[in-house]
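Re: ascorbic acid structure - here you go.
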Amino acid sequence: MKAIAALALAAATLAMSAPASAQFAKAEDAIKYRQSALFVMGQHFGRLGAMANGRIPFDAKAAQENADVVAQMAKLPWVAFGPGTDKGAPTKALPEIWTEQAKFKEHAEKLEAESVKLAAAAKTGNLDNLKTAFGAAAGTCKACHDSYRAK
Ligand code: ASC
């Protein structure tokens, strides 16, 4: 019984830490994984942008939900930029990602930090807070794309 409990605990622990330890069978899977995470993030970020820029009415609850998704998705792509994943499927990822790993990591961490602030701003229910935090987060998207994504 003890062994079963220990196994169950180990499995649960593994499941909870899955994103950070995601393993990919092949480079193509890693490329698809990071593109998928970034795509989903972009969709939800875009909805926030539409509110921040007045293209759609501000809806505090929707903003909060979208920002929470962004903050979760922002954690996911980075593990999928591992060694050997520079090719294997169509990708705009530039080689500098792998030759400037520390700088790339800094960009990723900035996005993660700004997306946490964005979620906090959305929780205030105040459109001006959302606008400010959205602008800062969008800046981190752009900075990384300028350096590490092909046009
Ligand atoms: C988005 C999106 C990005 C960023 C970037 C910000 O909505 O999909 O990649 O914002 O355009 O400059």
